[in-house]
Target: Helicase ATP-binding domain-containing protein
Amino acid sequence: PATLVDNWGREVKKWLGSERLQALCLQQSSAAKQTIMEFRHGCHQRMMITSYETLRKHAKELTGVFDLLVCDEGHRLKSVGGNKTIDALLSLGCSRRILLT
Model:
C-alpha cells in the first residue's frame, strides 16, 4: 500500500544501511516518470519500493527493469479471474517473484 512505501524504505535503511543498498521510494507524483527513467538508466539505486497503484500507472515504463519482484500484502492479489494489478505485475516481465502475506 502507498502508506507503507516510506516505511519499507526506512526498514531497508535500518537493516542494511545506506552504504550497502539504497532504495528508491517511488510515490505517485508529477515527477514519477522522470524518476523511473533515472532509476532505469542509473546504477546508484538498486531497489525500488512502490505501491500497487503507482506500479499500475507506470507499468509500461517499468517493463524489463526488475530481475526480482517482491510483493507485500499478497492477499490483495488473490483473484480467480485476474485484475489490473496482477496484469501490471505480469507485464513487467520479471520471472523471479516473491509474495509476502
Notes: The mean pLDDT is 85. The first helix runs from residue 5 to 20.
